[in-house]
């Protein structure tokens, strides 16, 4: 959506609220008390009422906006900013754009939207041929480790480990100048260590339908052949990474560049949420202008799905 059409479609709070309700109606409202899905809309109260047990549900409750006191328009503008470019925005920058006094509620809003993106992507598992590698992202040293003596150089930074997987099919006869592999879905997951156990758990969970995998010859990967039928493991010289694992390599360097450009310091515990945003947008790179609507839809249906999934 262009900025011009965004502004004319959502000029005020009411227009955002109307759109939100339209999407919420489509996604369906589930009664928290009896799980009923039939509701009346009480327009005077701006609440749903369960046809079975009369329990009221506010427009926001059960969605990502649950308990948020911020205007709908803030959420809409933020969703617009997050989906309108490949770049990202820090909560600080969004706070500035919205002209809001307090940082904390804005931070929570942005964080919840990123979480929504991550939750949405959890619905997909990787299939077919995949590339697998690990990346090391600079993050802040956690407070409890700060009293330890600092290392030389970038002493306040540590490297967080991230497992990166991308669907990557071989292109039969690539056109000149085109890549020999075609990328599908991408996954990035922050992990505590590179033990075989951790890697196995992660790969099994995120790449359930993979049939072939390319990796370097790291000992962390030696058990992968037990659950992915074809494992191509090889020594990869540094200058060949882009050839053998082209897409994970591109994804890692793009994600790193984006994080560097957007944030001053990244706390390790929030790295996953930034990567979720990166992957969400990467995985929807052909959605174009509909990305805003997709995120809006995910935001109204998020809690319901969460409940169905986890009871
Ligand atoms: Zn009910």
Give short descriptive properties of this protein:
single chain; 311 residues; alpha/beta; Nucleotidyltransferase, domain 5; 2 domains; 5-stranded mixed beta sheet; 3-stranded antiparallel beta sheet; 10 helices; 8 strands; 42% helix; globular; disordered C terminus; binds zinc ion
User: And the CATH topology of the largest domain?
Assistant: Nucleotidyltransferase, domain 5
Give start-end ranges of low-pLDDT stretches.
304-311
Examine the secondary-structure arrangement and name the CATH architecture of the largest domain. 2-Layer Sandwich
State the separation between the terminal residues, measured CA to CA.
Answer: 36 Å
> Shape from CA axes?
globular
Mean pLDDT: 90
Order of helices and strands: HHEEEHHHEEEHEEHHHH
Estimated helix fraction: 40-55%
What number of structural domains do the residues give? 2
Beta-strand percentage range:
15-25%
Query: If you compute it from the alpha carbons, what radius of gyration comes out, rounded to the nearest whole angstrom?
Result: 22 Å
| Number of DSSP E strands | 8
Largest sheet, described in full? 5 strands, mixed
The CATH homologous superfamily of the largest domain is called Ribonuclease H-like superfamily/Ribonuclease H
Number of helices: 10
Major sheet strand order? 6-5-4-7-8
**Structural class determined from secondary elements:** alpha/beta
Q: What is the top-level CATH class of the largest domain?
A: Alpha Beta
